[in-house]
Amino acid sequence: MLRAAGVGVGDEVVVPAFGSVEVAEAVVLAGALPVFADIDPLTYCLDAVAVEAVVTPRTAAVVAVHRFGRSADIAGLHEIGQRHGLLVLEQGESEVPYDEIAQRRQRASYLDAKLKGVRTPDGGDGHTYQQYVVRVPGNGRPDRDAFARAVRTRGVECRVPVKTPVHRLPEYRRSVSLPETERAADETLALPVDAALTKRDMQRIVSACNALGGLLQPAF
Question: What's the whole-model pTM score?
Answer without folding.
Answer: 0.91
